[in-house]
Amino acid sequence: LIENDMWLTPPLLVVIVAFLTGYFYFTSNIDQQAIFDQPIVTEDHLPFNGYTIINESSLDLLVNLRNTENISQQILEIAHNREPRVIRGTPAQEWIGKWNPNQVMKLSEKGTWEVSMQKGSKIFVYANKEKSMARLSQVKFKPIQRTSMTMKKFFERAGNTSSKSYVYFSKDFRDLPPAMLHELEPRGWLLPPALHSPEIEVQENFTANMMWHLWMGSGGVTAQTHYDALHNFFIQLYGHKTFILSPPTAANKLYLYPTNHPSNRQSQVDFTSPNSTLFAHFGEVPGYKITLSPGDGTSSCLLVLM
Fold this sequence. Notes:
Layout: E1 2-7, E2 12-20, E3 52-55, E4 62-64, H1 71-79, E5 85-88, H2 101-107, E6 113-119, E7 123-124, E8 145-149, H3 151-158, E9 165-172, H4 178-182, H5 202-209, E10 210-218, E11 222-226, E12 232-238, E13 241-246, E14 286-292, E15 301-304
Parallel strand pairs: 3-14, 4-5, 7-11
Antiparallel strand pairs: 1-11, 1-13, 2-10, 2-12, 5-15, 6-8, 6-9, 9-10, 12-15, 13-14
């Protein structure tokens, strides 16, 4: 799936993202189109001109787990549908309340952290200057500025709604203070069934088989529409985050950068002011809107299969 991630509610949000490298592996060609063949029921352009938004309520995306037993097996069964799903009833609800700005500042210990920062635009476009096309004079790109600051300073900037400077933080949990990991219990349910073994420590399995990250950002910060190389499992713990998902069949109409471009896997289209001459078919792209929030104490999880 191709996704656009937008953080909506100031001052910030906290998202745990688990990239499940061994969780969902398929060898058969399963029809991924079924969920996208539904009629358009609403038109809501949000801040993006050209997208036709189909709201979550119009799609059969919500799944409630049957019970609290064999949760990883239930998630695996849901994944076999090869469609995005919003899952409720997971043990992640036990993490809610442990994660807020004050608690993160407390657990992050003293010191500074590398933060991405951008002035003017809330849309962050990743650029890898090591890509071969970066050496071409015709290729214009702007690497995201990175700076170091304390968590206290980060939250002050993220919560400043009058500022035109936006901050964005992403870190592998294995590189964060151990105290933060201790707040994410239980977490064994995130492991696929094949990795559940009494002889192997849960932490060892996480280290060997999964990438999982903490994401935080200013309200309204948006990741340029892109696709990821791995399956995603998002857990929302604080604030709100809206995803706009598009089917793989829409990739050509999103005009992705070439593989060797610094911004590969991302759309070339400026969503705030799309060039209808260069990107004539962008207006035909459907977007499926999903908003995650801790809500009423049952944290929603979003499963996105690539």
